[in-house]
Amino acid sequence: MTDLIIRNANLPDGSTGMDIAISEGRIQQVGKQLPVNANETIDAAGNLVTPPFVDVHFHMDAVLSYGLPRVNQSGTLLEGIALWGELKPVLTQEALIERAMHYCDWAVAKGLLAIRSHVDICDDRLLAVEALLEVKRKVAPYLDLQLVAFPQDGVLRSPTAMANLRRAIAMGVDVVGGIPHFERTMAEGAESVRLLCEFAAEKGLQVDMHCDESDDPMSRHIETLAFHTQRLGLHGRVAGSHLTSMHSMDNYYVSKLLPLMREAGVAAIANPLINITLQGRHDTYPKRRGMTRVPEMLAAGIDVAFGHDCVLDPWYSLGSGDMLEVAKMGLHVAQMTSQQAMQQCFQAVTEVPARIMALDGYGLHPGCNADLVILDAGSSIEAIRLQSVRRYVLRRGKIISETPLPHASIRLDGRGEKVNFRI
Ligand code: FE2
């Protein structure tokens, strides 16, 4: 017996009038006018039904800490790191858990059901690690939280960072992080990449490094990351986050770099909201956009996802957990305005990050988890354009969030008829 059938859905691949039959938390069948009797029916009425949004780059230990202990005045990455350093010693586990849990509620309401969060391991108490492991356990029934051991102060620059990183992995953190551009020298940055990739290979783990988050075109740690990925056979298990220096690199050098990334199967994670606000701060005019080369990497066959990175923290004073806002900013900054490119921006906050996180059972095929979002939009492009309301969010076939449609009543003099349109 089918538990639930969603009728007349538009899917992200552009197909229309599709039914999705769900049983025991999984997708049973997808097709047109399925001859199925179900206990419950949802009429999608030509709206977009998609697997959930996925944020593959976030900092949940800093979320909702805006203004603590003060606001970032320069708006730069480096003041943000210094500010976080001021906040770290006074963090409490209770406050970390409370803020993270609150943000996860926002995420669910926005149809964001999988998050990869970096967690700073440079505090010897590993307070944030313990807190986010607790949050991971608490939210597991409705949100997949993957944690990255992130040495914010540099794995070589900070004397206890490597030992702390090993401890964090032993405690249950999933992924190995890094920040080569923050080490003392380029050579130390390269050495940190080697060290961390070898550790990940030894432990059979994925790697996700903050890499070249800089406007310096000579910051080329992504080359070293691609090198060690292919040397150690880590293909498909490594991601470079930010990669903003690539924006400023020499074109000839990039023409060599992208095939190396492709060969190694290294994925790229851009963070449009943060890159457009943090980068180019030392420029006068023209000011560089700072985001990495997204369309060029896609054309080279490299997986590119968009992450949210920050919400109300030392680095970013806005944000709401809405991956459609992230996709919209990415689309604008990268000038991805063709039909295909706009669809790629939607994929950059859904299926591509799901692949990078190696999420089990993600998708719209029979056997996949019945984790779905029904939006007030006819297509993925319209969803980005309108930042559409997430009418229903389903986890394992059960509605876990519902948002009513905003209602506008328009009265115009001399116009007798009522005009209906999406807002
Ligand atoms: Fe980040």
Characterize the structure shown:
The chain has 423 residues and is of the alpha/beta class. It folds into two domains: 2-51 and 363-407, Urease, subunit C, domain 1 (Roll), CATH 2.30.40.10; 53-356, TIM Barrel. Helix content is 34%, strand content 20%. The protein has 14 helices and 16 strands. The protein has helices at 77-87, 93-109, 127-139, 161-171, 186-203, 221-231, 245-248, 251-264, 272-278, 294-299, 323-333, 339-347, 351-356, 380-386, and strands at 2-9, 18-23, 26-32, 38-43, 49-50, 53-58, 112-120, 144-150, 175-176, 206-211, 238-242, 267-270, 304-306, 372-375, 390-395, 398-402. The strands form three sheets. The protein has an eight-stranded parallel beta sheet with strand order 6-7-8-9-10-11-12-13. Helix 2 runs parallel beside helix 3, helix 5 packs parallel to helix 6 (221-231) and helix 11 (323-333) crosses helix 12. The chain starts with a strand and ends in a 21-residue tail after the last strand. Fe (ii) ion binds at residues 57, 59, 118, 210, 309. Fe (ii) ion (FE2) is lined by residues 57, 59, 118, 210, 309.
